[in-house]
Amino acid sequence: MVDLSEVEVFILDEADRMLDMGFIAPIRRIASEIHEERQTLLFSATMPREIKSLADSLLKDPVRVTVTPVASAAPKIEQSVFMVGRQEKQALLHHLIDEHSIEKTLVFTRTKHGADKVANRLNRAGIAADAIHGNKSQNQRQRALDGFRAGKCRVLVATDVAARGLDIDAVSHVFNFDLPNEPEAYVHRIGRTGRAGATGLAIAFCDKDERSLLRQIERLTGTKIAATTELPDLPVLPKPERQVESKPRTPRGGQQSNHGNAAPRPPKRRSGGGNDRGGYGGGGGGGQGGAKPRSRKTRSSSYGSRRP
User: How far, in Å, are 79, 206, 232 from residue 227 at the CA level?
Assistant: First the structure.
């Protein structure tokens, strides 16, 4: 056990990045073990609602310091946006990468699952890609970055966890596959290109549900981003792999399993005085001289009733 009761200064750096990696709950637990009479400093490149809520819970009458305006973007970055449906984004990305012979580009998605999905579909189409996000281990992220720097993969797909702190030379294009929920994150994303006086291209994809996010970005940056509504001829992509569902087991004797959606067969009932071999029908008094049917014990199984 670690005793934190004597800690006097509590510093949280890259708070929004820790939020993306799922560390907010552990931070709250650590803070609860530290004495209330302390100095707390929180550093964050963006201030989404969750980080503001965390700051309000940890800080008392804080002084807010802004180092640089988040709305400033490098002047040599050319920005554009394609108005495209969600289902066409992947094909458009493939087309632009091949059409412009892009060798080193960053693609940003909103979710971790989305990053993996985009990277997997690029690889299936023969475009070398890798993904980094908060669910990847440090070793996995480092291997992906090293491979991207060395030119082993042309595309690095990332969430906002990688939008800052990356110093990779010769990134010619940045794609916003999904527009970020926070307009400040857009500025940090596109800042991965056009570095050290070089030029760069920032291309965004915007579907109908993201138009309000696009307007927020334009208000923040004070720039009207050139929009393209007519799409080029897009390639036909292989369909995403689907998990094959296992078929229900068929028990010995050919009876169908009751697992799944199939309704169980009702058990056969015998008539009072009918033939012992009868099924559902048979009136009383018939059969073999009204002989009393023999009693048969049944044994229950997971597939219905079966004779021993």
Answer: 9, 9, 14
pLDDT tens-digit map of 129-159? 999 988 888 899 889 999 999 999 999 999 9
**Token pair for 196:** 């050290």
**pLDDT tens-digit series, residues 232-290:** 999 888 776 664 544 555 555 545 444 444 455 555 555 444 444 444 444 444 444 44
Would you list the domain boundaries of the chain? 9-58, 77-228, 268-308
Answer left, alpha or beta for residue 290, where phi above 0 means left and psi between -120 and 50 means alpha: left
The model's pTM:
0.65
Q: Which residues pair with 82 in a beta bridge?
A: 205, 228
Q: What is the architecture of the domain spanning 77-228?
A: 3-Layer(aba) Sandwich (3.40)
Cα separation of 129 and 289, whole Å?
A: 82
Residues 6+ apart with CB under 8 A from 248: 256, 257, 259, 260, 262
Alpha-carbon distance of 249 to 304, in angstroms, equals 13
Q: C-alpha angle with apex 306: 303 to 308, nearest 5 degrees?
A: 135
**Contact indicator for 78, 201 with CB cutoff of 8 Å:** yes
